Amino acid sequence: MNTDSIHLILQARMGSTRRPGKSMADINGKPFMERVMFRLEKIFDGIKIMALPDSNRDDVLEALGKKRGWKIFRGSEEDVLERFAGTVKKFNVKKFIRICGDDPLVDSRAICGVAETLRSHKSCCTRSFPLGTGAEGAHSDILLTASAEAVDKSDREHVMPYIYRYPKRFDLLYVDAPFFESQPRLTADTEEDLDQFRKIFSALGDFPSLESVISFLGNKQ
Question: Mutual orientation of helices 32-43 and 59-67 as an angle, nearest 10°?
Fold first, then answer.
């Protein structure tokens, strides 16, 4: 995949309200966040950045990112839109792909689809991928416009909602997934979610395909 001028930005934090500290929860001998980062490293060969809150409890994530060679930006925990704006300014990012730190099974086709679409559109988001396996992205000038204009809390505590409000203005395109009959929930909010990932990685190894995960979970029903 040609990643010239595209950065991958991973949004992560330790302060989850539903399962505090989940980013460093043990998943079969490795921290959850390391599972997320390992998959992204296998998929994306360009520059990778962690966008982290500036609280002391997130120092452990910064240490993990630096250990794995990622660039780091620290900013507001609550104003995530501003955190991303600061990230693109610091590293002179022109186009970015955003990934959530709750998702250790992002699909390579999602990242590739977003990357390719950003070459011809200003913003894009995947559609019909199982929850936790998609991606979204935008040109940085679009993000900076959103950060300058958005005032609603719901727009500022996330990255893309303000852009989604004005699809024509921001040249938004949806990237459709291959057909998946099953739509499992593959993101981590609770201890039960973490237990599901432990079972997946134990059965399928460190880098399972989305098809193998869907098949495995279907067989467990």
Answer: 40
Per-residue pLDDT at 5: 87
The domain that holds 23 is classified in CATH as 3.90.550.10
| Residue 221 contacts residue 184 (beta carbons within 8 Å) | no
Per-residue pLDDT tens digits for 40-88: 999 999 999 999 999 999 999 999 999 999 999 999 999 999 999 999 9
Return the sign of the alpha-carbon dihedral for residues 43, 73, 27, 200: negative
Model confidence, pTM: 0.96
| The total number of structural domains that make up the chain | 1
How many alpha carbons lie under 13 Å from residue 30 in its C-beta half-sphere? Answer: 16
- Residue 78 tokens, joined: 């609550």
Share of the chain above pLDDT 70, in %: 97
Dist CA 115 CA 176 (whole Å): 13
Which domain range does residue 112 map to? 6-220
Residues facing 98 on adjacent strands = 9, 136
Taking every pair of Cα atoms in the chain, the longest distance, rounded to a whole number of angstroms, is 48
Percent of the chain with pLDDT over 90: 90
Quick check: is 100 in a domain? yes
Does 1 map to a domain?
no
